[in-house]
């Protein structure tokens, strides 16, 4: 009789332990699935694709050249004051965007492009174009800057529209929209300035 009681008690004890183990496992599984869902939501918030990488990789040197063009005319005397204002505006907009896109590439585990990196891009000025801008007198450089920057901006708009059609990263898509709107408006302004010269 005592033997049966001991067996029954041992059975109850092992059943209790098994149930306790199951409930602990259930709690662990709950926390694990919550960790997974929070990490996958963080991952989807920062998800990107090859188009996003290409957009940033190409737009960085494209912006760098626009800033260089602005610096060239800002260093000259005799440049139309409206062109000076526009060059300052372009530089103020594109410098921070370069920093932003460089940060994205780092976050995505991609290398930042070294200068133009041999890439052929829409609207990019050739070395001969850049030399012509450097060598132009102040008044002549005003007109040349507007002509070149109109072409340069159109290339950036084309690249941004490509990102809008195939990119996935929310921040990259937002920047692409911003570039389309801002640079379209600047093209209109530059064409107006050219017509008045």
Descriptive overview:
- With 197 residues, this protein is mainly α.
- It has 2 domains: 1-45; 47-195, Ferritin, CATH 1.20.1260.
- 81% of the residues lie in helices and 0% in strands.
Number of strands: 0
CATH class of the largest domain: Mainly Alpha
In N-to-C order, the SSE pattern is HHHHHH
H/I helix tally: 6
According to CATH, the homologous superfamily of the largest domain is Ferritin, core subunit, four-helix bundle
Helix content: over 70%
The proportion of strand residues reads under 5%
CATH topology title of the largest domain: Ferritin
**What's the domain count?**
2
Q: Ends: how far apart?
A: 114 Å
Biggest sheet character: none
């Amino acid at each position: 009789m005592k033997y049966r009681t001991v067996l029954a008690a041992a059975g109850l004890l092992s059943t209790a332990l098994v149930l306790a183990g199951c409930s602990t496992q259930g709690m662990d599984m709950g926390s694990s699935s919550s960790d997974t869902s929070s990490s996958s939501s963080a991952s989807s918030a920062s998800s990107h694709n090859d188009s996003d990488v290409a957009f940033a990789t190409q737009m960085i040197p494209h912006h760098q050249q626009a800033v260089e063009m602005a610096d060239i005319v800002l260093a000259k005397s005799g440049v139309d004051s409206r062109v000076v204002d526009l060059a300052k505006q372009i530089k103020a907009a594109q410098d921070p965007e370069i920093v932003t896109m460089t940060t994205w590439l780092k976050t995505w585990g991609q290398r930042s492009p070294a200068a133009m990196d041999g890439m052929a891009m829409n609207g990019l000025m050739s070395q001969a174009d850049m030399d012509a801008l450097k060598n132009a007198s102040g008044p002549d450089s005003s007109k040349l800057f507007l002509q070149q920057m109109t072409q340069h901006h159109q290339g950036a708009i084309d690249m941004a529209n490509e990102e809008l059609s195939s990119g996935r990263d929310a921040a990259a898509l937002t920047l692409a929209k911003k570039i389309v709107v801002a640079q379209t408006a600047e093209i209109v302004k530059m064409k107006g300035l050219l017509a008045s010269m």
